[in-house]
Write a structure and sequence with these properties.
The complex is a heterodimer of chains A (about 250) and B (about 350). Chain A has about 250 residues and is of the alpha/beta class. Chain A has 2 domains: about 1-70 and about 145-210, Rossmann fold; about 80-145, no CATH class. Chain A contains 8 helices and 12 strands. Chain A has helices at about 35-45, 85-90, 100-115, 130-145, 160-170, 185-190, 210, 215-220; strands spanning about 1-10, 15-20, 25-30, 50-55, 60, 70-75, 150, 175-180, 195-200, 200-205, 225-230, 235-245. Chain B is an all-alpha fold and about 350 residues long. Chain B has a domain at about 30-260: ABC transporter involved in vitamin B12 uptake, BtuC (Orthogonal Bundle), CATH 1.10.3470.10. Chain B has helices spanning about 1-20, 30-40, 50-85, 95-110, 120-140, 150-170, 175-190, 200-215, 215-225, 225-230, 235-260, 265-275, 280-305, 315-330. In chain B, helix 3 packs parallel to helix 8 (about 200-215), helix 9 (about 215-225) crosses helix 13 and helix 12 runs parallel beside helix 14 (about 315-330). The chains are: A alpha/beta (about 250), B mainly alpha (about 350).
Chain lengths: ~250, ~350
Amino acid sequence: MRVELHDVTVQGIIAGISLHAENEVVGIIGPNGSGKSTTLRCVYRALQPDAGAVLLDGTNVHKRQDVARDLAALTQESQVEFDFTVTEVVEMGRLPHDRDPARDSAVVAAALATVDVTHLASRSFLSLSGGERQRVLIARAIAQEPRVLVLDEPTNHLDIRHQLDVLRLTRGLGVTVLTVLHDLNLAASCCDRLHVLDSGRLVASGPPEEVLVPELIAEVFHVTAHVVRHPTTGVPQLLFDQEVTP
Amino acid sequence: MIAKISALVGVLAVSVVAGVALGPVSVPFDVTLELLWAALTGGTIPADLAGQYHIVWDIRLPRVLLAAVVGAGLSTVGVAVQAMVRNALADPYVLGISSGASVGATAVATLGILSGLGVYALSTAAFVTALAATALVYVTSRTSRGLTPLRLVLTGTALAHGFSAVAMLLVFQAPRGDAARSAIFWLLGSLGGARWASLPVAAAVTALGIGYLATKARQLNALAMGDETATTLGVPVQRFRTHLFVVTAAMTAVLVAVSGAVGFVGLMLPHLTRMVVGADHRKVLPLAPLAGAAFLVWVDVAARLLAAPEELPLGVITAAIGVPCFVILMRRRSYVFGGR
């Protein structure tokens, strides 16, 4: 499924963001406060842009009632107070779909297995560690059977093994993935294309090896970076100097 | 689930019969059943039971049924409001509706307005001022992004203080001591005024409200996880919260009008239910009203019996029974509403 952003503008935060993703993993990177999460919030409809539009296969997401059947999101929202079990949380992913108890429980069981949390199924969601919670929320997104997956910092709270697991897993789903990532090296190794945001504007777009160059890193993140090639995959990886560039 | 629901239905049925049998003049259980059966089937009763029939049918049964309706309604509204504003401390009164009702009720009790309506003056005035308070809370807390949880709670709490102040002023200024006493009695909740005529509206509104909420259990789950999450799961959050506000406000206004501001039921029964079955609204919503109904039937029995022939306000007893129960359950089980 194709996601397109056309000149998406939110007053005072992002201006004229245009990008697209279709059956690939597209990453959005940028410093704190550059508008990454705001951009995603426009995609998953938590925010209506002041100008511009977000299209799913050509249809504006704000004009469709059943977007949740095609698009799932992992948000940064985390102040849950209700003591749901892990299974109950993942079952929420079935809400957008017509009820079919047998199929629903099969999908939920499969989603739990996919992110390796089947053993937590009857545990209280609130009793889990940050990393376990994050995996459960990803299971919920998977249970939604989306064709577009929007992820805001999916690797937050995860140890390195689970970071790699989650990113490999989302690639393996074969759906369009639009993700915000903080870790540039992770972004370089798992995204087909990257978009760089700075102060609410798109400043660079392209494959990781074209985007992650020292000049751009210095300009956007104000740090000095050296690019090396990963010895086995050949993917560009960054090493940083301690000093901050002005 | 079916077993739990059936068990609670059984408990409620026994509670209703017991509630009718027990009182300052107690009627033996078998006689109570016989009289209820006769009344329901149109059978005849011996002449010497006429007095007991009057107590059972005209006085106690409507009162016990009203207790069940009010308990069921407040408990369900509590569940919905806690999810609507995502706050463990929320109850049906957090939105200021009951305080609004208290202005009308105390005005009737102390100033004698609407005396033309006779025994219905108090309920009518309470209902009208409850609706006015609801409208005020709605208009004040509404933003361009609809109703947001924190604004609802803050607005409701602030306005509730204002309404309470007016009610208290009325009580304080009351020319007659008994007027002040009856106003305070109302503020703490009482079913002493229950009649068959008070039942249909309260029962219908409560049943409709519970029915609506029961169909929205999955949406309430999503809303409990957060507005953004609910949005991504396809819940139209703004519209849904407005509907919830209207439904819970209407239920609260009707219930408060017939019973006064019975405290604690709407706060505690939702938590008690969650301690037993967890937070999933698909399980909580069928059970909370049954538990609330049975609970308030017994509370009302206690209100009639403990200081007979005087009656105690319901709010005093809900607190006396509820607080210890709640504390014991909370300590025994690993209940984590509100985070760890």
